Amino acid sequence: MKKTVLTLALALTLGAASAQNDLGINMTSPAAGSTVGPGVAFDFDVTITNVGTQAVTTNDTVVYFPLLNGSLLYTSQGGQQVPIAFSITGTTMNTSDTESRSISFGGLSINNGTAQNVDFCGGVLAFGPNWNNVNESDTTNNTSCQSIMYDPNGGTVGLAENVIFSEGSLTVLDGSYSDGSTFYVNVYNMNSPVAKVSFIDLTGRVVYSQSFQTQGKEVRAEISLNDMPEGILLAVLEVDGKQINAKKIVVE
């Protein structure tokens, strides 16, 4: 009996050690050959699949984002240019589970852009207790791309909005943004005394975190990015120990 128990325990240990982290993304819109431009509305439709054996739990966060020719898209918030990224939290994704999302854009504008073919992609990554400091077994499926046409003569409408998140019954508005050297914390309608901001690199390592006191149901602060590694970071807002938002920023 003891031998059977030990053998079973060993099998479970080996099974846990061989769990593979692997998320894939499939972008179905904009479709290949379609046209985008200023004032030309389109949908950013993606399906994210857990193709590995390591589950995404409710404590993990999945971040998905559009890319244009390999670079992040930006929108205007408070007169600043903010990278566009979206998060999925509080969701369990076991092996082969999928999550589909659709984001509507009012248009796309490339500064000084001319009529051209561009690569429009959807990207995905995850971080959290089960995904920090690990390498995915396959990173080639972290993006899904289509070749589309950019028409600069479409109009003037673009995506320019804050994202509203729910904190219990109270609406929390996160208008935080980065200019590449400073991260401006702007959180409104807070019902908690403290908000925490953490910066996480693409390996899942927390490079910096700081907590701020709420004043008049608002949190306003500035965080210097000068001592942080250059490149892409995730700025994660936490309230009462829960992740409210994750924004992809670029440190210059």
TrEMBL record:
Signal peptide: 1-19
Listed InterPro entries: Ig-like_fold (IPR013783)
Highest taxon above the source species: Bacteria
Gene3D superfamilies xref list: Immunoglobulins
Keywords tagged on the record: Signal
Protein name: T9SS type A sorting domain-containing protein
Native organism taxonomy: Bacteria, Pseudomonadati, Bacteroidota, Flavobacteriia, Flavobacteriales
